[in-house]
Specification:
278 residues; mainly alpha; globular; 2 strands
Length: 278
Amino acid sequence: MHDENQVFPVFIFRTKLRHRKDNRKELTAMSLAYTLLDLTSEFLMTNLTKNFPFELYSKCYRVIHRILCYQKKCRVRLNYPWPTLWNSIISAVKWSNSLRLDDPEIISNYIQVGRIFNMFVMYGDTFLPNPGSYDELYYELLRQHGVFDSLNETGLKYLEKGNTHKESCKELLSNLHNVRAIVNHFSPKIEAWSTANKISTPTPEEVMDIVRSNYDTLTLKLQDGLDHFERYSEIPREQQFFTNLVRKICKDQRETTTVQIDTSTYHKFTTISNIGQN
């Protein structure tokens, strides 16, 4: 999928969005890995609805995580616009968390998101295209730190309840540690720089300059097992999903398909059948 010598032009439908003036994108031949990341990014960004099955978000996160695991293992540097993917993931998390669903199962989705961003933070030097991508990553984490603060509050809320998902909440809080460390490390430095230069809102370039000059004093926690994933198994995890899917397809087919019977042919076969019985 990552072979740059095997590229294909693949059309992906793009829904019209307010912030996207033109939903058309030039069809260019890309590797299948590039196209798959594009598809997951578009899917996450354009399916922010209240009644959407959240397990499909989980499937997207798993696909993204497996691609990153492969790139880290083989040191493949895919020239992909990573900020687009980061923003799609963060938007999906922000939306799902804003619904305040009283369902601890959603914690597993947030754990997967934490793993994905930890992969970028800890191992991004093995697969990101250039050092500037790290600056862009840290900028996005700082710009949208409120989303991760909200996730941390969600984890603490369920942890205090002391329910059966206590271990999952601990894992979520652990996965958010590095993101919060980045925010807590760079935010005071950005505020100090803004005060010294009498600027209320620094530009993205100025923020990334501050980030580059303060990498050395940042302390991160090594996360174990980030590049490990559970192998896909249809049974028993996906069995119910495909069962429901087939049932729905059959039901829709019965309701929408009209069968037309030629009466003359029907009578002809009926006569033949009666003759055979006699």
